[in-house]
Prior knowledge:
- Residues 29-376 form the FAD dependent oxidoreductase domain.
- This is FAD-dependent oxidoreductase.
- InterPro entries: FAD-dep_OxRdtase (IPR006076), FAD/NAD-bd_sf (IPR036188).
- With 441 residues, the protein is an alpha/beta fold.
- It has 2 domains: 2-126 and 165-386, FAD/NAD(P)-binding domain, CATH 3.50.50; 401-439.
- 34% of the residues lie in helices and 22% in strands.
- The protein is built from 11 helices and 19 strands.
- The strands form 3 sheets. The protein has a 9-stranded mixed β-sheet. Strands 2, 3, 9, 10, 11, 12, 18 and 19 form an 8-stranded mixed β-sheet that branches.
- Helix 3 crosses helix 9.
Amino acid sequence: MRNGGVSFWWQQVGLPSPTDRLDGDVTCDVAIVGAGLTGLWTAHYLHEADPTLDIRVIEAEFAGFGASGRNGGWLSSELPGNASAYAAQAGEDGVERLRAAVRATVDEVIDVAAREGIDADIVRSGVLHVARSQAQAERLDGELSATQVAERIRVADAVSGHFDPDCARLHPAKLVSGVARVVRERGVRIHEGTRAVAIEPGAVVTDRGTVRASVVLRCLEGFTAGLSGHRREWLPMNSAIVATAPLTDAQWREIGWSGAELLGDEAHAYCYAQRTADGRIAMGGRGVPYRFRSRTDVDGRTQDWTVESLRSTLTTLFPSLAGVAIDHAWCGVLGVPRDWSASVSFDPATGLGHAGGYVGSGLTATNLAGRTLRDLVRGEDTDLTRLPWTNHRVRRWEPEPLRWAGVHTLYRLYRAADRREDAGLERTSRIARVAHRVAGR
């Protein structure tokens, strides 16, 4: 088994080397910090709106090094955050407008990929959410019976399910590298191997020079905490994934997973999975949820016990796969604001903006955020700039050691709640309700 190496996705297509490093001070129109999908989509849509703009993207490693090239490949219509937090700002109508915008973004990403020749193994296959206990079934309130779930995928002990057609399976590294190719072809400079150390109005200070621009956009998601002055803004939450060896035709028939639909469960410490284009199962879930003082991993290596935990989850869902080889394991971080809700913001007075905090739903939300930032930077009043995540502000996370203790306690509570529910509790455990209040969800 390979552990780390950024991700299985990057190892499959070939790990890139940083190019076009910054060489001294430069001046441009728009400086974007972070060459993940948020930064790349923003660059794409800004250049599309105004091809005369000189746009530079600053990236410490290579385009797609972070969550954009490590995620589970779910292009989903899931709301990127807490509905009640958005409702407090814009009411239920605002929440529904954001839901509709995210849902429409699934097709936007698919359309751009087709138009630009980005082959990212995209299949608009939907997602199957499965409840495996009465408590999970109560939360899910799904329309599918256990028999109907088994007609799609034979998940052991499934009680009920819900199928959402507005979701697509894709290969993350192929998508992000494709978007990077497209913006480079348009003339956007991506300065890889160039680490931003500070952001201020009119400038990005890096280890290789200063980029001066009237517009500076921070698009660092889970790596935001590594930037000076931002350690407590978004918590870098850790998630881990394993990829099996390719399954045989007989194994696929045994579990009944004949399509490309995605699979998730309703546990509090939930899992998410896809059937990859080359016939593997890639399954993710929480490992070590948070590292002290908001530290992040180096190259995606995860703990052995996390790998074994995900292996156990896989064989619990599919007992016939006991003994299947795990070929690769890796991890990455996602950005979590204190109210678990994403935001897109721009201040015309300072020229500073940001987008992120997608709490694990970023593969779709990054595209919507990029289009929203485009409109905000251009000073346009549009349906996108009136979405409730625009200029959404929350308080910072607690200082250490409270932050570390709180997050680890939180996930111990969630796992304890799952154990009680798996043992036969027919309603959501009170332990989980306490955890929700502590989390601010």
